[in-house]
Amino acid sequence: MINHSVKNILGSSINELIIILGYENKIIKNLIENHNKIKFVYNESFKNGISSSIKIGLKHISKNAEAFFICHGDMPKVNQNIYNKLIKARYKYNKKLSSEFKREIIIPTYEGLEGNPILFSKFMKEKIINIKGDFGAKKIIELNEKKVLRIPFKNEGVTLDYDTQEDFDFI
Q1: Best CA proximity match to 4, nearest among 64, 58, 72, 65
Q2: Is the pTM for the entire model greater than 0.85?
Q3: Per-residue pLDDT tens over the stretch 88-137
Q4: Parallel, antiparallel, or unpaired: how do β-strands 105-110 and 113-114 relate?
Q5: Which of 12, 49, 53, 94 lies 20 to 30 Å from 23, alpha-carbon distance?
Q6: Residue 149 CA to chain centroid, in angstroms?
Q7: How far apart are CA 103 and CA 62, in angstroms?
Q8: At a CB cut-off of 8 Å and minimum separation 6, what does 85 contact?
Q9: pLDDT tier at 21 (50, 70, 90 boundaries)?
């Protein structure tokens, strides 16, 4: 599943992919095919939850990055077209707006449900790094509602993750 997710991300127009490793890090790293866009980072604090992985990933993003996704490795139905559509939507929407009206958080939706991956402008990086607890970026989204742009998709994959063997029985 992780390789499938990685291939979907690499198939998009992203410039780099930072993969955060934690539990079973050596096994996971060996499962992923080498690619010049991939940078592996080990999160020693992985037991502290997803926010610790997000923070360490943000510390390794290229200084030239204009935006970044927070992606989940357990969402194999998110394909390269979804990533590219979110990137294009951010650019197209913000192209001629002044900074006070720009959307800094781009969220895919399916039938009104918010999904993943979420695309953040570089201007959100410091806010996300200061997350407390194991909340992912939900709190940042709540606090910055005026900066959110929701993009509807007909692909339910943006809302589906696979955590148990039973989840895979429907693929």
Answers
A1: 72
A2: yes
A3: 999 988 888 888 888 999 999 999 999 999 999 999 998 888 877 666 67
A4: antiparallel
A5: 12
A6: 15
A7: 21
A8: 151, 153
A9: very high
Q: Give the C-alpha separation, 34 to 39, whole Å.
A: 9
Rounded CA gap, 119 and 106, in Å?
Answer: 5
Contact between 136 and 70 under an 8 Å Cβ cutoff? The reply is yes
**HSE-up (13 A, CA, CB side) for residue 55:** 17
Phi, psi of 156 (to 5 degrees): -65, -10
* Rama region for 151: left / alpha / beta (φ>0; ψ in -120 to 50; rest): beta
pLDDT for residue 101 = 84
Beta bridge partners of 166: none
